[in-house]
Amino acid sequence: MVKLKPIKLSSYKQDPTEKLTSTEMGKLWASYMGNSMAKCILLYYLQHVKDEDIKTLVENALTLSEDFLKTTKDIFTKENIPIPKGFSEEDVNLEAPRLFQDEFYVHYLKYTSKAGMSIYNVAIPLVYRKDVKEFFRYCMEATLDLMEQTNEILMHKGLIMKPPLIPIPEKVQFVHQDFLNGYFGHVRPLHALEITHLYDIIESNTTSKALIHAFAQVVKDEKIRKLFEKGEDITTKSIENNMKKLYEENLPSPSFHNDLVTSSTFSPFSDKLMLFHKLDMFTLKIRALGNALAVDGRRDIGLTYSKALLRNASFVHEASSIMIEKGWFEQIPTAPDRKK
């Protein structure tokens, strides 16, 4: 591999005594909230997992979450920043019966690894203080290692299939006027990046669908239950619409995971944790749809994504409103209110 030539510069902006920027503070806050939630969920998973390989994977994920939490807390303490309340033992019941089969934990960890990397890959180009920069680089590398273990288990145990194969091009070509067609005239086959994002969105949504189905099954608050049922309908519609695009080209897609949810109606998690988790997952879907739109060329696919964006944004708005109504929505650090 090629090594970059060193550039010997120093900057006071990298000094660990320099004040945290808004980006550094915000991304550390998001990391703390996500990992405090993950710790509760992974501790519960470990109460029931039987498969030794999957158990080791969950233990590794828990170790990372605890490590990330400690480092974030240390930085906040050093800077006299209030430690977020986040989630704790009061948000999880480790005595609750099994809600998921072992195989679901692997799909779940792939989904949440994507979520973690979406925080870290945005943070890394925008952080300058040396200790924070090194922390996020470590988070990204460790999460990539966990993702590699997750994919190895998924493939080895036959729990997932690789994205579809397509032919190798015979020569370099340039597109024609019909490249953007989606409804009328000649509609070209999907290109590789369109297939990539259709597959990725389906893969993530099948995990999201199983999780929200389980949450709707055990949540205590009736208003939140109805929102979860709405969220499952939104997710199902997205999966079906995207699967249809692949099926029309005789391409396979990931399968559903609802069969990995047990019939238990005893909740292992607080309503607050479950609602926050689904709010977070639906915001991740919006980011994924934005990434897909950026490389899409066909008008029919673009319209499908645009409609999905609106539906997901509607869920996020309703979930946020309930979180605020119940006093569960923690305030992220903000700029000063100069109007006051």
CATH superfamily of the largest domain: Ferritin, core subunit, four-helix bundle
Rg measurement, Å: 22 Å
Q: Report on the biggest sheet.
A: none
CATH class of the largest domain: Mainly Alpha
Indicate the percent of residues in helices. 55-70%
Uncertain runs with pLDDT below 50, 5 residues or more?
none
Structural class: mainly alpha
Count of helix runs: 8
Q: How many beta-strand elements? A: 0
Number of domains: 2
Beta-strand proportion: under 5%
InterPro entries: DUF3231 (IPR021617), Ferritin-like (IPR012347)
Protein name: DUF3231 family protein
Organism: Ureibacillus galli
Short description:
This protein has 340 residues and is mainly α. The protein folds into two domains: 143 residues, Ferritin, core subunit, four-helix bundle (Ferritin), CATH 1.20.1260.10; 149 residues, Ferritin, core subunit, four-helix bundle (Ferritin, Up-down Bundle). It contains eight helices and no strands.
Please provide a written account of the structure.
The chain has 340 residues and is an all-alpha fold. It has eight helices and no strands. The protein has helices spanning 22-45, 52-78, 102-123, 130-156, 192-218, 222-247, 271-295, 299-325. Helix 2 (52-78) packs antiparallel against helix 4 (130-156). The radius of gyration is 22 Å and the shape is globular. The chain starts with 21 loop residues before the first helix and ends in a 15-residue tail after the last helix. It comes from Ureibacillus galli. This is DUF3231 family protein.
